[in-house]
C-alpha cells in the first residue's frame, strides 16, 4: 500500500502581484519519483524554493509528516528530511571527493565542526556505499575540481543522500550533461527512488521518457495536467501551451515536444 509523503494545497507565490506559482493541489507518494516539466518561467524552481523554505508563499500549505513546510525555516525543513539539489553544483573543488562526502555526512552539518570530526568505520563504509551508488567509487581520492560536470552533479547528489533525506528535490540534473551522463543520471534517480521520494525538474524529454514515471506539467504557475508521459505528450493543451506561439501542425508539435529539449527552453537557472 502506498503512503503519501507530501500534500500541497492552494500554494500561491506572488512576486509584486505576479503569480509565479498557483498550485491548487499536489500530492506525492512515498518512494515516488515525480518529474515536473513545463516551459521556462512556469514556476518549477519556485515550487522547489517553497518546499525547501527558501521562498515563503502568500497562501497555502505543504504538509509532510504532519508538519507544514510553509511554517518551518530552511534548517527545520532539512531536519525533517527534505534535501534540495540546485541546478549548479556547489562542491568544494579543493577537497577530495571523499572529503566532500564526509563533510555532508548527516552527523555533522557544519564545516568547522566536521574538520574535527572523527570518522567511525560505519561512517566510512556508508560514504563508500554512497560513492558507489553515484558512480564515484574510483574517484574518491580525486580533487573535486577535476571532476567532469556530470561527476560534480553526482557528487552533490551523493552529498545529499548522506543526509538521508526522505524527500529529494532535484532541479534540472541533466542540464549541460552529455547524452551518456544524462542516461547515467536517469539510472541513478531510478535507483534512488527505491529509498527516497523524489521530485525532479527536467527539460530533456529523452530523460523524462527514460524515467517513465508520472509527470506533472506546470504552466504559468498552475498544474496543467498530470499523468504518464505518453498521455501528457498527446494532451492538446500541453502541446499548445508548452510549445507556446510556435507554428506547425499538432503532429509536428507533438514530435518536437518529444524530441527537442530546446523547444521548452532551458535558459532559466537558479541563483
Ligand atoms: P522555472 O523554474 O519554471 O523556469 P521559476 O520558478 O524560476 O520558473 O520562475 C517563475 C516565474 O517567477 C518567472 O517569471 C520568474 O521570472 C519569476 N521569479 C522567480 N523568482 C523571482 C523573484 N525572486 N523575484 C521576482 N520574480 C521571480
Ligand atoms: Mg527553473
Can you tag this structure with a few keywords?
271 residues; alpha/beta; Rossmann fold; six-stranded mixed sheet; four-stranded antiparallel sheet; 23% strand; globular; disordered C terminus; binds adenosine-5'-diphosphate; binds magnesium ion
In short:
The protein is α/β, with parallel strands linked by helices. The chain has helices at 44-51, 74-80, 97-104, 111-114, 121-133, 149-161, 179-192, 205-211, 229-234, 236-242, 250-259; strands spanning 4-15, 18-29, 33-37, 59-64, 67-68, 82-85, 167-171, 197-201, 215-219, 222-227. Strands 6-7-8-3-9-10 form a 6-stranded mixed β-sheet, sandwiched between helices. The protein has a 4-stranded antiparallel β-sheet with strand order 2-1-4-5, covered by helices on one side.
The CATH architecture classification of the domain at 4-91 and 164-259 is: 3-Layer(aba) Sandwich
Mean pLDDT: 86
Assigned CATH superfamily of the domain at 4-91 and 164-259: P-loop containing nucleotide triphosphate hydrolases
CATH T-level fold name of the domain at 4-91 and 164-259: Rossmann fold
Q: Can you summarize the main beta sheet?
A: 6 strands, mixed
Q: Output the number of helix runs.
A: 11
User: Could you spell the SSE succession in H and E letters?
Assistant: EEEHEEHEHHHHEHEHEEHHH
What overall geometry do the principal axes of the alpha carbons give? globular
Class per helix and strand makeup: alpha/beta
Task: Give a written overview of the molecule.
- This protein is of the alpha/beta class.
- The chain has a domain at 4-91 and 164-259: P-loop containing nucleotide triphosphate hydrolases (Rossmann fold).
- The strands form 2 sheets. Strands 6-7-8-3-9-10 form a 6-stranded mixed β-sheet, sandwiched between helices.
- It has helices at 44-51, 74-80, 97-104, 111-114, 121-133, 149-161, 179-192, 205-211, 229-234, 236-242, 250-259; strands at 4-15, 18-29, 33-37, 59-64, 67-68, 82-85, 167-171, 197-201, 215-219, 222-227.
- The protein contains 11 helices and 10 strands.
- The protein binds adenosine-5'-diphosphate and magnesium ion.
- Magnesium ion is lined by residues 44-45, 268.
